């Protein structure tokens, strides 16, 4: 059966208030979240709170004009040599037709405004409209991402850890463009990989391209929807939960003559990632050694890391 014939689990969050944990709708969604993340490592979230109007403003009014800037302007999105993957990515070997910019602490107004000043030093309407739209969209996505993180802690019976972990979590908001190949045949713009962070949330705009790999190796094409987001487990959440949750491989392919745009929110741990004591027992011995996320990311992009498919296991597996 081809990948196109399958779909991700779809969870309805329309009746869930992210700011008010508890209640029937919350409990129902939590059960579905845990089933999906343990089995697929990902799911599609129906989330009308991120309205089609805001999505259109994000991609047409903010993201598309951003990528129309000069290469020199986009290269100003840099956080230093020791954080090369936190900012601008372009002309990366092995990733033809892929370009991306990112904002550290991208859910915060001051961070987005700092980014906009780099892109538009003279200010003006472009800068103001960009900031308002990106902050509103990023915060809407963050509200649901935080709710899902809380649901995971509750579902695992370790809810007491949520507040402390959240206090030591930061978020990267990344915007990407995948150039059209002007051909009917699919072209891979970003190859198969697992994410290195905690949770990833993907917002697609109109053009399909995100493909998730099932445990059986089949590729599932995730069609864009004006009311949905895609959640997936990163390797650090997989590590902290002692392999109870699955971190899926995924890739980006494009075809046709229309470029693809997406926006992503990544939650990233700034604490030492260590398997939770409550998730270790005789049937579930520790699978991973304590480690720092930055060290893990550096390993993943190293020559040694490139040799391994399961980079987490190769880096800190017991």
TrEMBL record:
Cited InterPro entries: IPNS-like_FE2OG_OXY, IPNS-like_sf, Iron_ascorbate_oxido_reductase, Oxoglu/Fe-dep_dioxygenase_dom
One Pfam family per UniProt: 2OG-FeII_Oxy
Gene Ontology molecular function: any one: metal ion binding
Function statement: 2-oxoglutarate-dependent dioxygenase essential for auxin catabolism and maintenance of auxin homeostasis in reproductive organs. Catalyzes the irreversible oxidation of indole-3-acetic acid (IAA) to the biologically inactive 2-oxoindole-3-acetic acid (OxIAA).
Record bears the keyword Mitochondrion: no
Family of the protein in this entry: Belongs to the iron/ascorbate-dependent oxidoreductase family.
Keyword Metal-binding attributed: yes
Keywords: Dioxygenase, Iron, Metal-binding, Oxidoreductase
Domain annotation Fe2OG dioxygenase: ranges: 169-269
Gene3D superfamilies in alphabetical order: B-lactam Antibiotic, Isopenicillin N Synthase, Chain
Protein name stated in the entry: 2-oxoglutarate-dependent dioxygenase DAO
Superkingdom assignment: Eukaryota
């Amino acid at each position: 059966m081809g990948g196109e014939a399958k779909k991700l689990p779809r969870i309805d969050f329309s009746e869930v208030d992210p700011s008010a944990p508890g209640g029937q709708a919350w409990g129902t969604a939590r059960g579905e979240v845990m089933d999906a993340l343990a089995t697929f490592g990902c799911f599609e979230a129906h989330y009308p709170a991120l309205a089609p109007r805001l999505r259109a403003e994000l991609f047409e009014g903010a993201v598309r004009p951003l990528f129309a800037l000069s290469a020199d302007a986009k290269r100003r999105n840099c956080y230093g040599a020791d954080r090369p993957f936190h900012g601008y990515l372009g002309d990366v070997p092995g990733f033809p037709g892929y370009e991306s910019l990112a904002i550290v602490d991208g859910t915060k107004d001051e961070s987005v405004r700092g980014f906009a000043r780099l892109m538009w030093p003279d200010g003006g309407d472009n800068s103001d409209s960009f900031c308002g739209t990106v902050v509103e969209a990023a915060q809407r996505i963050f509200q649901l991402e935080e709710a899902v993180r809380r649901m995971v802690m509750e579902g695992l019976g370790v809810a007491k850890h949520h507040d402390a972990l959240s206090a030591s979590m930061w978020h990267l908001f990344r915007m990407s463009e995948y150039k059209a190949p002007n051909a009917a045949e699919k072209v891979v713009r970003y190859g198969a990989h697992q994410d290195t962070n905690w949770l990833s949330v993907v917002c697609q705009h109109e053009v399909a391209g995100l493909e998730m790999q099932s445990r059986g190796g089949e590729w599932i094409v995730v069609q864009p929807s004006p009311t949905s987001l895609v959640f997936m487990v990163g390797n650090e959440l997989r590590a902290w939960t002692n392999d109870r949750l699955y971190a899926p491989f995924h890739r980006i392919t494009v075809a046709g003559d229309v470029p693809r745009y997406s926006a992503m929110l990544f939650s990233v741990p700034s604490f030492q990632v260590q398997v939770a004591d409550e998730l270790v027992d005789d049937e579930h011995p520790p699978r991973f050694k304590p480690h720092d996320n930055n060290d893990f990311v550096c390993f993943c992009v190293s020559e040694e890391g490139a040799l391994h498919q399961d980079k987490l296991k190769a880096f800190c597996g017991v």
